[in-house]
Amino acid sequence: MESHLTVLLPLAAVWLAAGWLADGLPRLDHARALRRRTGWVLALTLAGLGLTAAVLVAGLSSAGATAADRAAAGLGLAAAPALVVAASTVRRMRRLRAGAGALASAPGTPAPYGLRAAAGHPLVGLPVQVTGLTILPAVVTASSPGLPFGPGATGAAITVGVLGVAAIGVRHALRHSRLVERATPARPASPRAASPLHV
After folding, report:
1. Pairwise CA distance, residues 88 & 155, whole Å
2. Domain segments of the chain: what residues?
């Protein structure tokens, strides 16, 4: 096993686990379960950010073709979504956990649709999932260094990756819109609109 693969595998596992758990947040209909799951996602996300930063710093500070250098080079794609996670997703998860904690005093307290809509916001799950997915090419390359990756294979992989990320983003946006619609109270009809029309 390549030495930098031992660095990339746990990193990919942490990010993919966080993305998988974050994807299920809007489906939780009890506040206590939502608070507990958000805590897990937040812990895994912070661990992923810490490990990613440590690998990148180690790769930048070392000279030569060390394992840290090769692992840091493989994280070039993951740096941008990880920055989005650090700038936006962590803050949203903390707010979500605090909101669920305010309602989690009783075990059976339902999670309101507004809270579930916040859990389904695209900036909660999507950046975490994209970060995990962008580490996978580095893992594949490190585990199979003898595979011939030509320009055609690289272009096809990039196209498939972009289409996959777009599909995940559309799914998150549609689910968030559906939950927001359920959270919005129906407006009562005005008396003028309800009254019969007089000529």
Report:
1. 30
2. 5-186
